[in-house]
Amino acid sequence: MRAGIVLFLLTGIYNYIVVAIPKHRGDGFYHALMGIKILLAFGVFFLAEALVGRSKAFEGLRQARKTWLLVLVVLAFAIVAISSLLRVRTWPPG
Ligand code: HEM
User: Which residues line ligand 1 (CB under 6 A)?
Assistant: First the structure.
């Protein structure tokens, strides 16, 4: 779980800074959606860790695991949808 999260973070940050930013200069819509996607990913990482971890602080969250797992899955779908949209969108437009 942790190694997967670290890999997502490292590859994602590298991909964004080195590949995506230079390709999308001036494209505010792209960066806004990418920012939302990255924040949603943090939500997924948090929920995944909290659900499988043993920390007392997140016991309440584990008590309602059905709800939070559903939230995690919905977030993950939204992330993939946003990522796909960003991939196929052309810039500059036209
Ligand atoms: C739950 C975690 C994540 C999932 C499921 C996910 C999923 C995806 C998917 C499906 C793509 C499109 C791949 C393609 O077809 O080319 C993508 C692209 C990308 N992701 Fe993620 N991602 C995650 C986390 C992150 C994080 C944390 C970052 C940055 C900090 C990031 C940055 C990027 C960037 C820069 C792209 C390229 C978008 C483009 O084509 O313009 N991702 N991601």
Answer: 8-9, 12-13, 15-16, 20, 38, 41, 44, 76, 79-80, 83, 86-87
Q: Structural domain boundaries of the chain?
A: 2-88
pTM of the model as a whole: 0.92
Q: How far is the CA of 12 from the centre of ligand 1 (A)?
A: 6
CA dist 48 and 88 (Å) reads 29
pLDDT in tens, 28-76: 999 999 999 999 999 999 999 999 999 999 999 999 999 999 999 999 9
Distance, CA 65 to ligand 1 centroid (Å)? Answer: 26
